[in-house]
Amino acid sequence: MSGDSLLTDDLDIALPACAERAWARRAIGLLQGDARRSADTHLIKPVFPGLTGLSVYLKDESTHPTGSLKHRLARSLVLYGICNGHIREGTTLVEASSGSTAVSEAYFARILHLPFIAVMPRTTSRQKIEAIERFGGQCHLVERSGEVYEAAQRIAAETGGHYLDQFTFAERATDWRGNNNIAESIFAQMENEEHPTPEWVVMSAGTGGTSATIGRYIRYRNLPTRLCVVDVENSVFYDSYVSGDRTVSRDDGSRIEGIGRPRVEPSFLPTVIDHMIRVPDAASLAAMHVLSKRIFRQVGGSTGTNFFGLCRIAAQMMHEKREGALVTLICDSGARYADTYYNPDWLKENGLDIAPYVDQLERFLDTGRLQA
Ligand SMILES: *Cc1c(COP(=O)(O)O)cnc(C)c1O
């Protein structure tokens, strides 16, 4: 065979077109348009008179168009699926969720005219189910939170669809070095502050994706900031962090929607976490109520977990006479939990007495004192 014929053979066979890409290019354009219409979220700085020497910042992720930090994740997961060629024209999107991610994904599925099926525990709040359906998504409810993974995988296989799989892909679908990820946004918004480099960032874990993004970014930017992850009851993250065992699992589900999991999710990265605290559910919900009163609007349960963890760190810092900045997140709004966390009957039915924690928190935030 001569070298010539390698170049001239088969010239009459046309090269393949990129027909599939016409849809992908339109889809990317629609997602970029949505991003361009959106502003960054606020970093608010409430003042607590008892916390002398400390500045507290709350990154308010409740103001995204779909009401939670999962807006960022849903956008990243959909982009990741399109850019990997897994999401095409007409692909059914399927997700396992405790609700917030599914609400945000339903929003993006509607923008892209794709069918969407959310697999969620039956205990998911009515407001989230309604939001998903309003965005044109379908809800498939299962009895136990540990059943969502298999059900989602099965439905994706049956429909020839794409399982977005937030619990696996959250940590890698987000650009870890920047691209306005939540960590880059927080640290940029801190630049003009008295203490521009926070001592601690406190965050709860659902997928673990947000804490992974923040922990990696701290290391990448070579900052002395430490990351504390807070966990809840009926969740394996804390035990796994302490023991190093990633195989622990349990049957029941977390009562704090969005965080705490029955298995150690692949996106949970313990190696970028400096400290973990387990917060009782009654303390999470007490902190949710206390913070909501002080910032004049209702926050969700996981924000309470975050805020309680932040207060624990603040108490320790004051005890050690240290000064500096502490950052945590408002993950979603309390409007989604009117029937549950904000309903005194629900608290009673679930055996949650928040009053002692409310008193402790009020005293600490007003006076800095831990004891009456
Ligand atoms: C998902 C979620 C979290 C936790 O964020 P991850 O990045 O998944 O760990 C916290 N609060 C709410 C309301 C959530 O939906």
From TrEMBL:
GO CC terms of this entry: cytoplasm
Sequence positions bearing N6-(pyridoxal phosphate)lysine: 70
Domain of life: Bacteria
Needed cofactors: pyridoxal 5'-phosphate
Tagged with keyword Cytoplasm: yes
A GO molecular-function annotation: lyase activity
Residues in Tryptophan synthase beta chain-like PALP domain copies: 51-332
GO biological process: L-cysteine catabolic process to pyruvate
Reactions catalysed, as given in the entry: L-cysteine + H2O = hydrogen sulfide + pyruvate + NH4(+) + H(+)
Subcellular location: Cytoplasm
Pfam families, alphabetized: PALP (PF00291)
Function, in words: A cysteine desulfhydrase that generates hydrogen sulfide, H(2)S. The H(2)S produced by this enzyme may modulate central metabolism.
Record-stated family: Belongs to the cysteine synthase/cystathionine beta-synthase family. Cds1 subfamily.
Name used for this protein in its record: L-cysteine desulfhydrase Cds1
Organism, as annotated: Martelella mediterranea DSM 17316
